[in-house]
Structure formats: C-alpha cells, structure tokens
Amino acid sequence: MNTTNLVLAMQRGCMQTFRQPQLVLPASSSMVRSCLLSTQPVPAARLPCRVKVSAGKRYAWCACGHSKKQPFCDGAHRKEAPSILPLRFTPEKDGTVLLCACKQTKNAPYCDGSHFKVIFRDLVKSHGNSRNADVIGPSGSFTYRTENFVVLSS
C-alpha cells in the first residue's frame, strides 16, 4: 500500500489491519463501502418480523442486519460488522411479537414503527428531485410530496 492510499484510508477511518502485509487492500470505494457497513446497521427488511417467543428463553436479535437468519443473529457481524453486537433478550411471557428488521428502532429488539421512516426515505431517494410521486401500495395508491415530507392518503 503506498503512502497516499494509507493516509486516505486513515482519514476515512477505514484502516483495516491484517497479519500479512500482502493482504492490505488499497483505499478504494469498495473498501470504504465495506467499512461503512461495519459501523452502521443495514436494514434487513422494510417490515418487522412476526415471531413466536417463549418465556424464559434467551434470544440474540441481529442488530447489524447482515444475518441470514433474520431477525436473529447467525454470527455474520463478526465478519461484516464487528463493531455491532447482537442484542440478547429474554421474553417474560410466551407470545407473538414484532421484532425490528429495519434496525432503526429505538425500542430494540421490538418494532416501534421506525420502518415507516426507512420506507419513506427510500421512496424520496428513488424519485430524486421530483416533488410529487404516485405509489401503489398494498391498500391502494397514495401520493407523497417530497418538499414537505408529508404522506397524503387517497
């Protein structure tokens, strides 16, 4: 790795340490992207997971979003997001709960409706500079205005 790439990687906070020098990668956009994934959770899904839980049983909720066994942890964070650990929880009673899959909840591991913000943000991004967009949803169509960030039902 040349000095310029090393300085660039350190400035971005994405320096990765390897045991063998030949494995050190140059500072590229893919390296920066993988470093960003390791510090920020990624939405595993836009809607919460409905799960039956048992009282007294210990569960590990995936907080990073990389697990293939959503909403539970499969250890993927060790490679994909080492700075984000799963949340361990034990339900007090048997029942069906909604566990967050967008990873933006303020009441982890339970869904608090934050996925609506994630869905809306994705809609706004997908339409760029357009002020109005019609979207067909499961309950019919609705219009949203991006300049006011207001959802209008029809």
UniProtKB/TrEMBL annotation:
The keyword Coiled coil does not apply. It holds the Pfam family zf-CDGSH. One of its GO terms (cellular component) is mitochondrion. Its cofactor is [2Fe-2S] cluster. The keyword Signal does not apply. Residues 46-83, 84-121 form the Iron-binding zinc finger CDGSH type domain. Keywords: 2Fe-2S, Iron, Iron-sulfur, Metal-binding. GO terms for molecular function: 2 iron, 2 sulfur cluster binding; metal ion binding. PANTHER family: CDGSH IRON SULFUR DOMAIN PROTEIN HOMOLOG (PTHR46491), CDGSH IRON-SULFUR DOMAIN-CONTAINING PROTEIN 3, MITOCHONDRIAL (PTHR46491:SF3). This is CDGSH iron-sulfur domain-containing protein 3, mitochondrial-like protein.
